[in-house]
TrEMBL record, chain A:
The protein's name: Alpha-D-ribose 1-methylphosphonate 5-triphosphate synthase subunit PhnI
Originating organism: Microlunatus endophyticus
GO biological process terms held by the UniProt record: organic phosphonate metabolic process
InterPro entries referenced in this protein's UniProt entry, alphabetically: PhnI
Pfam families with a match to the protein in the record: PhnI (PF05861)
Superkingdom per UniProt: Bacteria
TrEMBL record, chain B:
Top-level lineage group: Bacteria
One GO term of the biological process aspect: organic phosphonate transport
UniProt cross-references to InterPro entries, sorted A to Z: Phosphonate_metab_PhnG (IPR009609)
Entry-linked Pfam families: PhnG
Entry protein name: Protein phnG
Listed NCBIfam families: PhnG_redo
Amino acid sequence: MYVAVKGGEQAIANAHALLASRGRGDQSQPAITPEQVREQLGVLVSRVMTEGSVYDPDLAARAISQAQGDALEAVTLMRTYRTTLPRFGTTIAIDTAGLPSERRVSATFKEIPGGQQLGATFDYTHRLLADPTEPLDLEAAVEEDEPMPRVTDLLGAGALLEPVTNHAEGEDPDPDPADLTREPTVFPMSRAERMQALARGDEGFLLGIGYSTLRGYGGTHPFVGEVRVGEVEVEFVPPELGYPVSIGRIEVTECQMVAQFVGSSEVPPMFTRGYGLAFGRSERKAMSMSLVDRSMRWEELGERKVAPANDEEFVVEHADAVAATGFVEHLKLPHYVDFQAELVLIRGIQEEIRERQAEATESEPELEEVSR
Amino acid sequence: MSEATAQEAEEIAMRQRAAGVLAGASTAELAECWNAWPNRPEVEYLRGPESGLVMVQGRIGGSGDRFNLGEATVVRATALVRGGGLATECVGTSYVLGSDPDHAGLAAVFQALLADPGQRDLVLQQVIEPLQSRQATVDAGSRAQARATTVNFFTVARENSGGVEEDDE
């Protein structure tokens, strides 16, 4: 039961002033601007946009500054802000193969059309602390761009990989996905609904669950078919125009995970898919998401449910950092009345036990005499 | 296709191209074009500029079923322009990703000017084409930098491995 507490206004105002002062730190240091955060902490900005579920690097940078670098606090600020805005509509689904990627690697094939392009990556760095340096001079390639077809399309063409969709005849070949932000969550979910939940989900949680599938808790050994990072054009059909227009570009990270499948009496053995997609440069998130997506497809693929990663209700209900933070962190708010009630109860029980014990000791001497 | 619909399709294609270029340009670039505009007409905003969201959808596996990836901020505006060198009043609408009302406001003005037969070529020459080629130069630069990171991995046969054990990992 929640009972309002009153008072403390001055203390709360002072606490917020102290928070702001701690956030500002040493005043002899220049303050960080949101523009600097946007430009120089791009990976954190990506995470806040992805989990905040709103693409806007400027807003995410502001949120990060305000939250003093607390990613989950910044995510919460983004989620709160989005509720103040009307939704104009839904975009045309983005085409992740549409624009040349900045980064595109495959762990399954060495030679792929378009080549392995490392892009801006932490891979192959030495993970040693170094002095901050000015950006190095970048060499630019002289060779022409080559188209980069999806690696999974190459595999799929030989029927070695399951088809990307599997709708029975008569079913809608392009169903409208339900929107978790507008409709109540009902289990079991469609794969599309799960993807939305995972896209909003906490990177750390999904990383842990994804990792568990690799360590034997219900997974198979997968391969990264392809990871792409790049900008894609966002197209939208304004109702007043009636035709699609480009409204700008967003950066996304995509991961196509390729996993094993033993096959059944009807389906020959072939590789299966897990998919991950996230805003900005969010490779760890996209990879974790694709692992968890694959492991939650056990039923569809006729596998057994053996691990936490297979349990969509468990994963989806605990992946949202805003919900998790809200519930865990509310425990520190005043619970005086709740606690008082339990205190009275426990005191009563203890009192009762003591009384019974006292009664028992009063009658004990006689027993002792008898036993002697 | 009749002549009328062919013309209509051409008109839509031109507007789509302009919308993409105006959305891709920065507010500063658009403001520069607008400040340099000769004989500027009077602008009245019929709607906005106002902020909102669009739900961005992706496709599972890149090309499968659609799913809701997350929202993106958008600003939109509908501008009416009159006076200046315009024959009639014209209306233009813009939708632009982000939270900058001026970006959508200026984009809507140029869309409105495109609707005027006397101004169209000027907008295309003075605004759309230069911004498009500037964007193309920036894109080509970042692509060339990205292409410079193309890697050729080669697998090395394990020592003492003969035939069967030889393994590409």
